[in-house]
Structure formats: structure tokens, C-alpha cells
């Protein structure tokens, strides 16, 4: 009887403390978590698949002087993944401001579609963009991306923070911090599409 009572007390304590965020209506729903996590996981897999087995000539190929190479795309993606998450962490340390939600003009799906589309420009501020000097090798960039993206997936899965009521202005408009997470994932998808276009270019080296 004593053990049963102690067990119930422990369960109650876990609900009140460890699971408090799941009971808070300002934390993410399971549907929101699943949507963001699937985007992040798929993007992680696709990025590594996009460079698997490529030679140095293929990694450094550019159809013209204004293009990025695949290597440069990977450096850029990895750098932005880190820089964007640092900004998100800083924003989440400020107080939530639900009144700013009226400034948001995009649904989650609209935001993802826009960010993933390579035709849209000026999506990130200059401070979040890389200058391709953050990494010394492709392996270094991929390792950083793997670590960052794995941590971001865990954050979306477990966080009880009020992501929806922290709002930030980007060059393309206002978004909340849940959408900021979606933006980070969609940004990598945007460049993965461009990597695939490079690989389909007529001048792309055979090996």
C-alpha cells in the first residue's frame, strides 16, 4: 500500500515538473512538433545523400563565375544552420509578446514553400549568411551540420518554451519562432534543390 502511494506521488510530481510544458497551452502541439521534425529529419538525410560519392571536381564545379559550387553550398548551409540557431536562442531569452502575432503574414505552409523556392531572394539578413570561411573542409562543414541539426530536432521534440509568442522580423516579414525553426529547415532544402540542379547541369563532371 505504501509503495502504491509513493508511486502515485512520484507520478504526480513528474506530471507537475517534468511534463509541465506538455500541459501548457503556449507550448507546441504534437502536430506542430511532428511537422517540424519531419522537415528537419528529411532535410538532414537529403543533404548527406546529395554529396555522397562526389569527387573533388564535382564538388567544386561551377557552371559560371556567379554560381556557387556544391562545396560552397554545403559550407553556406552549415554556417547558416549554426548562425540562425544562435539568433533563435537569443530571441527565446526575451519576453514573449503575443501582441506582435498580428504582424505575421504567413501560414506555416506558406513560409516553408516560400523559403524552399530558389526564386525568392533576400530571405536572410547579412549577419546570418556565411562568407564560406567558417569551415576548412567539407567534412568539417558536414560534421557541424550533423551536430547542429541533431540538436535542433531534439529541441523541437522536447522544448516546452513559448515559440509561438516570440516573434522576429526577417527581411521578408515577421514570423514567430516556431516558424523560425521551419525556416532553418526549409533554407537547407532550398539549397539542396540548387545542388540537384547543379548535378543535372550538362557541364557537370562525370567523375
The N- and C-terminal alpha carbons lie at a distance of 72 Å
Q: Would you list the SSEs in sequence order as H and E?
A: HHHHHHEEH
| Count of separate structural domains | 1
- Summarize the biggest pleated sheet: 2 strands, antiparallel
Instruction: Count helical runs.
Output: 7
Strand count: 2
Q: Could you say what the CATH architecture is?
A: Up-down Bundle
| Mean pLDDT rating | 86
Q: Helix- and strand-based class?
A: mainly alpha
Unreliable spans are: 1-23
Judging from the principal axes of the Cα atoms, what is the shape?
A: elongated
Describe the overall structure.
There is one protein chain. The chain has 207 residues and is mainly α. It has one domain (27-199): Four Helix Bundle (Hemerythrin (Met), subunit A) (Up-down Bundle). The chain contains seven helices and two strands, in the order ααααααββα. It has helices at 2-16, 30-51, 56-59, 70-92, 108-116, 138-158, 177-199; strands spanning 167-170, 173-176. A two-stranded antiparallel sheet has the order 1-2. Mean pLDDT is 86; it is low at 1-23.
List keywords for this structure.
207 residues, Four Helix Bundle (Hemerythrin (Met), subunit A), two-stranded antiparallel sheet, 57% helix, disordered N terminus
